[in-house]
Amino acid sequence: MDYIIFIISMAALIKGADFIIKESEKIALHFGISEFVIGATLIALGTSLPEMAASIVASYNHKSELAVSNVIGSVALNITLVLGLVFLIAKEINPRRDIFTQDSAWALFPVFIFLLVAYDGTITRAEGLTFLLLMAGYLLFLSKEPSIVAEEVDEELAKEKFNWPPTIALLILGFVMVIYGADYAVESASNIARSLGVSEWIIGLFLVSFGTSLPELIVSIQAAIAKKADMSIGNIIGSNVANFSVVLGSAAAVRPLDVDLHRYGFDILVAFIASLMLVFITANKLYNKSAGIALLVTLAIFVLNHIP
């Protein structure tokens, strides 16, 4: 039964992602907003809801390790797995936005803030609220973005008359399908993993973070296939900012989080290195298959380190 649920949930994820991308593009066209900003805000926050739900529940149930590892694992997977696959799948990636100049700091700044507040072993409620302010700062930064109408748009989509009610309805439906699809995918995959004798630690660190990263994975790949590179990369950067700010901040606001930097040292290092790789890739505009392979190799090292 778990195998059937997993297949159905993945189908819901894919179709939901399709709704999100199409309706987000309609909004971008209507308001003259760049696809990067749409990806970094509306889509990023929406696809980060599974991480937020998982971490808040974990924090409420006194499971700080799960709440923190979910965020660290999701950040590492978003860059190494999601972007790695995007670079391999997309036929051409040529973002119109200078991502390095405008956004690279946001790929690294949240990691430094996390290390700073977690150094004493605890993320307090006040520090959690500080994380939430970080997301507010990011949204304010993006609000200053000049209006840029996408140069390459779906001609049929551009001809459609914009109508808020169906757009909002399909966006909500898409997010519901993505979020619940991810939820059931995680639950069914966890049951499958346990039936195969996989340890709870591996399930918690990788399966939960992978499951909650499924929305970013599906949405970004769908956007890459649709030649919406700016939306894909914006989704990843925005999601990582949201993971450290909204997700971790909300979890800490519910209950202070205990953080064992020694235990999670390697995982945090991988998330940091992955963030550095993202900055290096954007600085040199290495949006190609070689960069994708390098990111996936980093993912392989991350996974292999936890295999007995």
The separation of the N and C termini measures: 29 Å
Oligomer: single chain
Counting helices, strands and paired strands, the structural category is mainly alpha
| CATH-derived topology | A middle domain of Talin 1
CATH architecture: Up-down Bundle
Q: What name goes with the CATH superfamily?
A: NCX, central ion-binding region
What does this structure look like?
The chain is mostly helical. The chain has one domain (40-148, 186-304): A middle domain of Talin 1, CATH 1.20.1420.30. 80% of the residues lie in helices and 1% in strands. The chain has twelve helices and two strands, in the order αααααβαααααβαα. A two-stranded antiparallel sheet has the order 1-2. Helix 5 (99-118) packs parallel to helix 10. The longest helix is centred in the middle third of the chain and has 32 residues, at 164-195. The two termini are 29 Å apart. 49% of the residues are buried.
